User: Fold this.
Amino acid sequence: MLASRYDEVVVDQLFSGNTQLTKALQPLLEVAEQTLDLDEGKRQRTIVRIDAGGGSLGDVNWALAQGYQVHGKDYSGRHARSLAASVVAWVDDPRVPGRQVGWVTEPATAYVREVRRIAVRCRKQNGQWAVGVLISSLSAGEILPLVGQSVSKGDEQEAVLLAYVAFYDQRGGGIETSFKGDKQGLGLTKRNKKRFEAKPMAMLLGSLAHHVVVWARQWLTTPQPTQAPQMPTPTSAPLQHYGMVRMVRDVFHISGFLVMDAMGQMVQIVLNQAAPLAPLLVDPLCALLAPAHVAINLGQT
Assistant:
């Protein structure tokens, strides 16, 4: 379970290989409640964004009853096709050529709280429509800011419709990208254990490494309050878009050396000035390590 806004892993649990999300969603959310101390008020401000595996009527109603905001995909493909037949008008999605979206007009009476449903369809190679239905408890005023749009568009039904679909699409840039990045950047698949009981430890070590990289990226791209104004220097902004692979391969592999004092305490870090990314790290590291009185310099290594 990933907090997609800041790329941190909230819950990392190991299940048997034949376990589907329909069996894992509720246990994952219950552990997340403990991890994040989610009381009733916090759950009302927490969005659970899930794919079709967690979109069964039972799972959605359970999450809604717990007070969560839910934004996901209907579990049943057959049910989705039936609901799509109630769409009065289809709208072309400018973000994905060939995709159309529309409001489901059939009342959602089976859910314990009010939800809105959006049908999404795309042409398959055989010319038939592939159809899915999104389920969301978010209001128009809540969904629009989440995709960077003004709440003033709340009366524009087409804009709101596309916002619901765009917010679901962002899910694909979160958890799947995180898995792929950890596998490639941290080599998770190269550290398998034969015994099931040993796998959780390897998994938790992988989560720790994931967080160290995520936090390091934040440290190297967030201006520090102690950072004094100075002459323009290369900005570290490009690092904000670096994934796990590039952080490990390009940033963490910059060569250099450490300078110690007579007591064995580090007093200086010298980064290889020939490394293309080294100049971007000087100012953030200076601000980060200022309390420890460690100087950062560029030099030949």
Notes: The two ends are 41 Å apart (CA to CA).
